[in-house]
Amino acid sequence: MGRQVAKMLSKDYDVGLVGRRLNLLESLKSEIPTKSYIKQINVTQTETAIQKLFELIEEMGGLDLTVLAGLLIVAAILGDATNYSVGRWLGLRLFRPKGPHRC
Predict the structure, then answer these.
(1) pLDDT single digits (tens) 24-77
(2) Is there a single domain that holds both residue 101 and residue 90?
(3) Residue 22 and residue 38 in contact, taking contact as beta carbons nearer than 8 Å
(4) Crossing angle of helices 2-9/22-31, nearest 10°?
(5) Do 57 and 69 sit in the same domain of this protein?
(6) 34 and 75 Cβ atoms separated by less than 8 Å
(7) Residues 56 and 84 in one domain
(8) Counted domains in the chain
(9) H helical segments located in 1-103
(10) How far is 90 from 94, CA to CA, in rounded Å?
(11) Are residues 22 and 57 in the same domain?
């Protein structure tokens, strides 16, 4: 999803691209017609990731909070729906009720 969102947003905005694999970030950057910035970030290394994110924002000259808020809302809704679906599917298989009552 991130790759396609970046391409879509690049039609109207400069974009910042983050990820673990630098070769994929550079490949995506070459496909984007507008100015784009890349930063290799591994989110499992929390302190370093936050520092690198602030570096990227500074390199870009700021951040459009309207776009960020919209993306966060969409990500939250998609994440919630995905987690519900996985939990429902997995939960029914792991925690089967005893007796005649089933979900």
Answers:
(1) 999 999 999 889 999 998 888 888 888 998 899 899 998 877 777 776 777 777
(2) yes
(3) yes
(4) 30
(5) no
(6) no
(7) no
(8) 2
(9) 2-9, 22-31, 46-60, 65-94
(10) 6
(11) yes
State whether 47 and 95 are in the same domain: no
What secondary structure does DSSP assign to 32-53, as a single string? -SS-EEEEE--TTSHHHHHHHH
Query: CB within 8 A of 22, min separation 6: which ones?
Result: 38, 40
Parallel, antiparallel, or unpaired: how do β-strands 15-19 and 36-40 relate? Answer: parallel
Range of the structural domain that residue 36 is part of: 1-63
Q: Give the other-Cβ count within 10 Å of 38's Cβ.
A: 18
83: its two tokens: 């987690």
pTM as predicted? 0.62
